[in-house]
Amino acid sequence: MLEITTRKINLERRRGNKEKVEEMYMKCIAESKTSQMSSHFATKYARYLYKVRHDFKKATEILKNALKNDPTNPNILLQLIDVGYQQDPMDQSAILEAFEMALSSDMNNDQKLQFAQRKLEFLEDFSSDPQSIQSAFEEYAKMSKSLYTTRKRPVEDSEESKEKKAKVEVNGSAVATTATAAVPADASYQYSHSAWANYAQNSYNYQQAWTPYAATNYYSSH
């Protein structure tokens, strides 16, 4: 059903029937039974608006309305960022607003960390304000350290429990053995971002996958 609906919309698009395309997209958004499905059509409609019709204002409106019903959907926020990228000149304020919306949302911390890194990379590439870059790096480093600590603690607690139970006989006496916690040695939390990188490359035409920053001072290494 989804494929059939999409094909019908694209048929009207190829015919140049802009009003019909808009009508069909809005109907799909309104009649979707789940927020995820509504978001799916909203992002497709927004992409059509700003890539085909160059209507950035309406695309932003559609995405922000979708975000009200699906506030933790990263694809909507990525589309909002892309709307800013696609404008000429690029709308830096709109891009930064989308990043802040992501970082203040209720999405999980792994996703927030990815948005924090993406914000830092954006500022590195386009900002002329060194302080804003430093602030973004400190924000990213703080989130990275917090996630690393959160992941490390359960492993340490588990290993500590094992140490208390593990006993060996030495000269007839029972002594505790020492277990090594299986946690990463690197103090900067290294997250998995392959799926995110694939989406980013498709959205922003970046050729390289993202790599995490080490949680050190930004200007000491750049």
Automatic annotation (TrEMBL):
Single Gene Ontology MF annotation: pre-mRNA 5'-splice site binding
BP GO annotations = mRNA 5'-splice site recognition
Q: Which residues form the signal peptide?
A: none
Coiled-coil residue spans = none
Where does the record place Basic and acidic residues bias? 153-168
**Which UniProt keyword terms apply here?**
mRNA processing, mRNA splicing, Nucleus, Repeat
> Which GO cellular component terms are attached?
commitment complex; U1 snRNP; U2-type prespliceosome
**Region spans: Disordered:** 151-170
**What name has this protein been given in UniProt?**
Pre-mRNA-processing factor 39
- State the species of origin: Caerostris extrusa (Bark spider)
Lineage of origin? Eukaryota, Metazoa, Ecdysozoa, Arthropoda, Chelicerata
